[in-house]
Amino acid sequence: MIEFEYWWLLVLPLFFMLGWLAARVDMNQLLSESSALPAAYFKGLNFLIKEQHDKAIEAFIEAVKSNTESLELHFALGSLFRRRGEVDRAIHLHQNLLERPQLSEIQKTAIMVELAQDFLKAGLFDRAESLFKTLCEASSYQQPALRSLLDIYIREREWLSAIETAQQLERLSGIPFHKEIAEFHCELATMHPEQADAHLAAALATNPFCIRANIMLGDQAASCNQLDTAIHAWQCIEAQKPQYLGLISARLLQAYQNLNRADEGLALLKSWVKKHQLPAVLNVVYDATLAREGAESAAELARGELARQPSLNVLDRLLQALGNGQQIPTQDVPLMKNTVHYFLGNSRSFCCDQCGFKARQYYWQCPGCNGWETFPPEPKEQPLR
Fold first, then answer.
1. How many distinct structural domains can be found in the chain?
2. Could you tell me the residue range of the domain that residue 296 belongs to?
């Protein structure tokens, strides 16, 4: 044991010496590389930091002229052109680079990536698609190229190609795309009603929790007057994600009414309100209770909900019931109702969980970030200030 410790005492200084030499070599290499860069390059970086993009472009053009062989400088300049919306200049720059002789495969791939981004930015989707398909053959860029292709197919609403590309990405990356693929099948069902059953079945097979597929199945059955089938499809949503029941509660109750089973339908909706506490379902229950049982029953329903949780929406319903029942001065009711309606109209919105985009109506695909099923099914009441 003693000999082992002495041996380490002899070796440790050697390790320190090797570390010092490695640091010196790295520093000398860094200084050498920095001195090889033209001064205009650092001027361009300085302008970028200050967000003076016009001056940065001028500086990078000067840097490229003094160092025509540096691909990195050309890429920096092309990226600036894209950011400024000067896509034609970026395309011209990268096409000229591709024409250079004796490019390595790595260099050629890097240039094609930049050029494909130019075409995408310019909205030349067919050219971008062609380049990204070529880039898919390069294993180092296969997944990013497939993601760009998927974005193109979604923009162009080429849903079959989108499904195939998403499946490839799923296999390569291990990241699930079942939610997106199911939505693509729903889009196909919308575009091709004659094949809707097959596409909606495929959507549910891909993603058993695809709410939209069951909503569409119910709508399709209701349009053919197959009301029991429609009710069954809509009821399946409770087992999937009950928070979405508000999206179908009105049409479900209407189906029950058309079958002369309104009491059964209303009882079901009341059970959903009690079990899941959904404001959108409560609205439907309130309207039906007011119409069938009168103002006092509707007011009692609203009072119970207000006691449980204060809400402008429920207060609005209570005021309607009290106005109908003549229990407060009639001349005050319109003013109170209009005031509440005004604040409701300006304070309730659907808000994307992914990017925060707010909308007055429900979207399956967020207009802000293009994410699928990122909107909660219930609009949120914003606090009044």
1. 1
2. 279-385
